[in-house]
Amino acid sequence: MTARSIVIDNIGSLITNDPSLGAGPLGIIEHACVVIVDDVVEHIGSAGAIADRRIDADGACVLPGFVDSHTHLVFAGDRAEEFTARMAGEPYDGGGIRVTTDATRSTPTDELDRLVQHRLDEAHRAGTTTIEIKSGYGLNVADEARSVAIARAHTPESTFLGAHLLPSEYAGRTDDYIHLVCNEMLARVTPDARWIDAFCETGAFDADQCRAVLDAGRSAGLGLRLHGNQLGHGPGVQLAVECGCASVDHCTYLSDADIAALAGSDTVATFLPATDFSTRQPYPDARRVIDAGATVAIASNCNPGSSYTTSISFCIALAVRDMRMTIDEAIQAVTVGGAAALRRTDVGRLSPGSAGHAVILDAPTHHHLAYRPGVPLIRQTIGPLGR
Ligand code: NIG
Questions:
Q1: Do 199 and 106 fall into the same domain?
Q2: What is the domain range of residue 358?
Q3: Range list of β-strands (E), 22-136
Q4: How far is ligand 1, taken at its centre, from the CA of residue 71, in Å?
Q5: 221-245, pLDDT tens digit by residue?
Q6: 387 falls within a domain
Q7: CA of 41 relative to ligand 1 center, distance in Å
Q8: N or C: which end of the chain has fewer CB atoms below 10 A?
């Protein structure tokens, strides 16, 4: 098959995320073009390169496609009523996961798959080109197996989250459920899963139960990730670092010891600011985490309960306004940061040899993503999502 080339030409400001190619940590090049051959960046130069297809950026900013390293897209139904009650003062405690589990279990597989595709199309329009998708609303062997299989059909970054919440039929038998997750359920999902995850939180699973899940996942050959420190201080961050997780996600409540542990590890601290927004929680102290030297990512956490958004632009605006990240740090966190959280080096950057996944903004610079919150600034997303 002959190679198919695309040039994104007439770029006003190109974010490469490769400091050896351009200015500052974002490696910014002005008046640039990017040549992509068979989905891989072949060449970056000044405007005017020849290719089979030319996309005119018309002087706008171009950046790497967003890497959304934390989503729960395999679900049916919504929880608008729960959100409305929360805005009237009800707290968020994760209990609504069981409501979504009931809806997901009773939805046919082809319909569930269609719902996932619809959400992926929305994310792609919003600039996401790499995405992680978790199970976690099946919570029995058959429904977790089909959830992970659906996730895998859409992305290589599929995650088994059987330890999301105790299903009601296991009330009072948490250890039995953890045994099921670590044995029969894990064996069924392993062919379709790249990652294993658990929700380490009061009301979900404790450190020992989560450690058992992570150990079983590691033995099955899966990569490790963990939900930790979302609703209060707890052992999640320390456990994730101790187990060598690629990422610990939420990190809303962090002690000095948690920050020191993250800084001394290669576990990425993934912030999910749209969750803190939608649950009226405080925002994580990103400034201290970054200043301590930890690697950080920002992801959407798209799910029907705590964060029903696919908009990475919205997350960037929150991170800058409410978490005191600089705009450059926020852009890095949704590109190379997300890639690090998935242990990927081929995405999140635009340099020769990297994936040719790019976003053309309807704006002259990346600053507009925070400066113009709520405005649909993604003019075009180049590159597939998932597959
Ligand atoms: O990451 N924390 C656990 N899981 C999701 C919420 C899921 C839900 O409420 O349905 C989260 O916020």
A1: yes
A2: 5-65+348-382
A3: 28-37, 40-46, 53-56, 61-64, 66-68, 128-134
A4: 9
A5: 999 999 999 999 999 999 999 999 9
A6: no
A7: 36
A8: N
